[in-house]
Amino acid sequence: MQVNLKKIRGWKRRVRQLEAFKKEHVAFDRDFLKDNKVEYQKLFNYPEIDNIPLWYKADIVTTFIDTFHAWKEQADAQLSSYYLRLHINTVDIFDSELILSIDEQIEAYKNRFLKCEDHLKLPSWLNNNNSIEWKCYYMHSTWLKDEIDTLPEEEKQTLMDNLVETRKIDTLDGERVEEYLINEGIVFYLDYEKIEQ
Length: 197
Known about the structure:
alpha+beta, 7-stranded antiparallel beta sheet
């Protein structure tokens, strides 16, 4: 009986922490944004939590969506151009984040992610708000051909089984090399862009 009470108290505490997060981050830090051209917020992280209830995941998503809308309203009033993006990581919900970028960071953040063309089914806890059209992208790691060639054959094959895309890029010394984007999972996102005309 005490174990169950402990678990209930633990989740009530987590709900309070989520409410505090929402109050604390209802507005983005304009000075930080001005200095760094990007502002972001991630949730607190609880690596000791293994089984997160679906209702709590839905609460996390709702908190992030509310914060997204608050930041959008503030950005519309204060910024002429910006890019706002919300990531919901379905594998590790605590790795979800909200990103606001301005100036040269707009393109950097828009192009950092590789869109997933597969039509994936949304998790039930993410599908609570039917008015939102979630998109998905690949979380990926980037490897150079030279790095992959140093790996044992089995490890190399594992990476190649998860290959999303190969690109040719120029190094700082002008050499043209192959870059491999390796799928590390899929993240759902919501974004908005305002560009000054």
